[in-house]
Amino acid sequence: MDLDVYVTAHSAEWDRLDHLLRRGGKLSGAEADELVALYQRTATHLSLIQSSAPDPMLMARLTQLVARARATVTGTRRSSWRDVVRFLTAGFPAAVYRSRHWWVPTAVLSTLLAVIIGWWIGTHPEVQSAIGAPAELREMTRPGGQYETYYSSHPAASFAAQVWTNNAQAAAMCLVLGAFLCFPVLWILFLNMLNLGVAIGLMSAAGRLDVMLGLLLPHGLLELTAVFVAAGTGLRLGWTLIEPGPMTRRAALAQEGRAAVGMAIGLALVLFLSGLIEGFVTPSGLPTWARIAIGIAAELAFLGYVYVLGARAVRVGDTGDVEETDRSAALPTAA
Q1: How confident is the model at residue 113 (pLDDT cuts 50, 70, 90)?
Q2: Which residue has the higher pLDDT, 168 or 136?
Q3: pLDDT tens across 16-65, in order?
Q4: CA distance linking residue 298 with residue 82, whole number of Å
Q5: How many CB atoms lie within 10 A of CB 126?
Q6: What is the pLDDT of residue 67?
Q7: How far apart, in Å, are the Cα atoms of 275 and each of 48, 215, 226, 250, 280?
Q8: What CA–CA distance (Å, rounded) separates 59 from 79?
Q9: Which of 147, 294, 146 is nearest to 209 (CA)?
């Protein structure tokens, strides 16, 4: 492409678009139609220049021009309660449902890893001795020991807030770090399963596995599910860099990234509920069966929410991405 010839051929159109944009809302019907047509042509011009003869100054001018035109054509829209309702009833569950082929295997394999680690530690005294001195292990696993009093060591409200903050940060890290080709997500998952496996193994060796499960299951089912969803989504985001599918790598990563940001918000709400259970139900005086029943009910409610509302939203075309009017303009790709 001869850039000088191309600019000479189309600069009048760009100037005309700029003139129409400066006039704002004082356009006739024909001028409004002309503005839309010029916006579409200028977006195509920008794409061709980006791919064939990238000139920084010209690209900056046309990018600004296209952005102004898009804002004028599509208008501005303020977020409303309608957006919140749509996100909670369609966008978030659809995003989680679409990622199920990633987070369900992640959940199964991670849980299996924690069980194997717990079995290995619980059945091998030499491994237990490598973890800590016998007196230290007894202090951790005895009735009223560190594992048992951990959930009641602080006031319920502050403990729930602390748990929620820590878990939300872990979930966000899984979502964000997935873009680094998945490896950081796998490391975060391994550390979480290692800690869980150590606790299960030590309490099992002390003959108090039932107590440990009674403390873990009320909040742990929902909490771990949220972490697995975040990890699976992070892995999917990382895989998009490797295999973007029919879209360009940039477009695919943008779509999955926007969905991941929405999932971070939704999972923060899920982890907030899990934190409330961990702060108020787990250390409560309720019978063990009642506490576990509350945890199972919360887990089933979340899975039903995803597999009913999420599947319904996906069937009508919702991907968990933001609405089309809120996305960046998709420029044509030059052949």
Answers
A1: very high
A2: 136
A3: 888 888 886 677 878 888 888 888 889 888 888 877 777 778 888 888 88
A4: 26
A5: 6
A6: 85
A7: 51, 13, 12, 36, 8
A8: 31
A9: 147
| C-alpha span between 93 and 311 (Å, rounded) | 8
Write the CB contacts of 61 (distance below 8 Å, at least 6 apart in sequence).
Answer: 14
What dihedral angle (degrees, nearest 10) is formed by the CA atoms of 319, 324, 329, 330?
40
For 194-262, give the DSSP string.
HHHHHHHHHHHHTT-HHHHHHHHHHHHHHHHHHHHHHHHHHHHHHHHHH--TTS-HHHHHHHHHHHHHH
Looking from the CA of 114 toward its CB, the CA atoms found within 13 Å total: 16
Q: How far is CA 114 from CA 109, 125, 199, 289, in A?
A: 9, 18, 10, 23
Predicted TM-score of the model (pTM): 0.70
Total residues belonging to the chain: 335
Cα(171)–Cα(109) distance, integer angstroms? 18
- Alpha carbon distances (Å) from 290 to 135, 177, 213, 214, 218: 33, 37, 13, 10, 9
Residue 28: DSSP 8-state: -
Q: Give, in order, the Cα–Cα distances in Å from 186 to each of 79, 111, 270.
A: 36, 13, 22
Terminal-residue alpha carbon distance, the chain: 13
pLDDT for residue 161: 64
- DSSP, residue by residue, 270-299: HHHHHHHIIIIITTSSS-HHHHHHHHHHHH
Place of tokens 């048992």: 148
Token pair of 13 as six digits: 């159109």
**Segment 143-199, tens digit of pLDDT:** 888 887 777 665 666 656 666 677 777 777 777 676 666 788 888 889 889 989 999
Return d(Cα 72, Cα 204) in angstroms, integer. Answer: 65
CA-to-CA dists, residue 296 to 60, 174, 195, angstroms: 55, 25, 22
Contact 233, 99 (CB under 8 A): yes
